[in-house]
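User: Round two. Same drill as before: sequence, then structure, for each protein.

Assistant: Same drill it is. First protein:
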Amino acid sequence: MSLDVQRYMQNVPEMDRFLTVDELSADLAAIAQKHPEIACWRRVGSSQLGEPIHMLSFGKGDRNILLFACPHPNEPIGAMMVHHLAHLLVNDAALREGLGFTWNMIACVDPDGTRLNEGWFNGPFTVTNYARNFYRPAGDNQVEWTFPHNYKTNYYDRTLPESQMLMRVIDELKPELMGSLHNAGFGGVYYYISREIPELWSTFHQLPEWEELPLKLGEPEVPYAVEYAPAIFKMLGTSETYDYLEAHGSDMSTFSSGGSSDEYASRYGTLTLVTEMAYFDDPRVNDQTVMDTNRRDAILEGMDKADATADFVNEILTAVKDDLRTKSSFEVAVTWFNKMHSQHKDAERHWASTDPATDRPATVAEIFSSNQESRFYRLLSLGMLVRMLEGEVAVGNGTPTIRQNRIKARNAFDEWSAELEGELQMRVVPIRKLVAVQLGAILATAEHLAANSRV
């Protein structure tokens, strides 16, 4: 079967907001109830707080596709893609049956965390509102990164219930294609894929072009990312993180990290695809104009600013530590992210200072990554810090120290967010465009696999 991927993308409807966890669940359950002859809705697990997690399946092919959304709870684009694809599969028998796959979709694998992001799902879609209502769990509480892992001195077996659910589903389905439906916050489109398939690269570059979205051509998420082609990278793994930190002098005796869904599914030869699209972009995210600024200097300046943010957050955490009562998800997350920054910053500086690849003129996109884009992500931690302190006050624990530091954190957040928004040439990307690119990537990859037997 040959797919007109661009037509499928063009037919994605306008979407003015993100659906809540309850709305998504009700929508997909209703599809199965109305169409039991083609759709199966079954419970596959539970969240840490006891929320039922269901999977919707279409088709009777002997090869499986597994798509799961909200692997990080601040990333609901994949949930909207699943919502759209489910309705598409109901009405498009050729797509549902023609590739020989059974389509299996989980609309939200972290409902507990996703509910803590619903404050920005209905807009206004600004950097400030997003950061002010943002939540992302600590690393050892992320569904995507708590799979069992054993490498060198790292032995991790503190697997979350949601990750255990995905392990069971992966073991059952042995998926040929798995879409871990992530998305970025700020920047352009880029991809991770678990093995090199050069036949797909031109298509991956075309997909954002069709929706007038930029590729992200600045600094990669991590310096050790293996680039297959511009904006297309080999899937990141915990073992690679370990080797990078070890090579740059980190104390590995304290390293403790789970593996990813991709690392777990690799035992079945699964091809994993991650398509990262951002809510906000800027003309500079893919500007390849070479500037006078040295790339190394730009990276190190960005690290200086990151250190200053971490010091500010740590100052407030230290000040309020003895007054905290709730042990909220926000406290756990902010503390963990600050700890990870402290543990990794020396390795990052060593890499930036010694790698010959950083000693050259930087592009506009690279400078933007090291400055405005990195400041955007640091603002998110500050937003969670404010929410942590507001939560203490909300439950009646408004001690003088907590109230004073809440004001201090809130004022800093307001100042930093206003400054950042003033520097950005920002566009709010329509949700349908983001859904369309992610849908296109899945369809193009599924079509490629359908024409090729599993290796």
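Second protein:
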Amino acid sequence: MLHVVTAARRRGAETFAVDLAEALGARGVPSEVVALAPADAGDPLPVAVLGPGALAPATLRALRRRARRARAVVAHGSRTLPASALALAGLRTPTVYRSIGDPAAWAGSGRRRLQTRLLLARVDAVTVLWPSAAEDVHRLHGVPRERIHVLPNAVPAARCPVPTAADRAEARRRFGLPAEAPVVAVVGALAPEKRVGDAIAAVATLPDAHLLVAGDGPERAALEGRAAAEAPGRVVFAGSLPGPAAALAAADVVALPSRTEGMPGVLIEAGLSGVPAVATDVGGVGEIVVDGETGVLVPPGDVTALAAGLGRALADRDGLGAAARRRCLARFEIGPVADRWHDLLAALTDPGAAGGG
């Protein structure tokens, strides 16, 4: 199986593709992950890079060569849809497009929606992350319901151990955080849609709380300035990390104040690590975070609600964290999800060998 990601960066869709390929390989399905473009910064994933850009002619030619040898192609979101449609034109290789965001939020209108509809018509199956997203893909883009499959995001539990007291102490020393103060972590790209500034503003209202920002992106300089003005000495910018474990070990709560999301892997990683989350109720977030049971859901853009939610989560950190771990182990661990992917790919490549996905 050939898994295609937009770039060799350590972000949600790309990391999931690597995890899924490994899990399928363990199930006897050899899989390879390739990136359309190199990582723009940080520690890249160890995957083959096909060319200089997602739609560059050299990239598309390389993708076509790889696809000729594959039993099926899985395109993991973003620019992989147009790239796969162009590169695989005329080939008989079955293709699956994995929708990674909120279809309603990113559908656009007019020409953009028509382009997406035409591109999705050229793939054999579309996977979405939560049930209502399936209806959105059908309604907005005309994909027949029988070609849409609900397969949630997932993370290997082995990568997200519950931190010990020693892990917590070491992580806090590493990041220069106080040993006993409440710590909120934001893990992800520092991009406008993530609204990390809302987390800074919320933490600024919480006495003695500190914020750990793990990630990098175009907003970093502006956010550092805002942190110095609003919460001086209480915000640590750690930059990009090779994985979430250290940041989660340091944290009491994870904050995700995004204005739009798909089904964020960081919330699954936090849950598996026993760390509750306070997140905006957008996209598939509510599939992971059950308000008042495994964390707290708040409206997007409401800093007051975010601050109150962080206060609630900090007050019941252990209870919410334990419930979050139970839910994520049951629903969002890579093993059972990979089994469902195995069935879907088997049905596409050998319809008589599997019962569906």
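Residues 292 and 310 are 12 Å apart (CA to CA).

User: Perfect.
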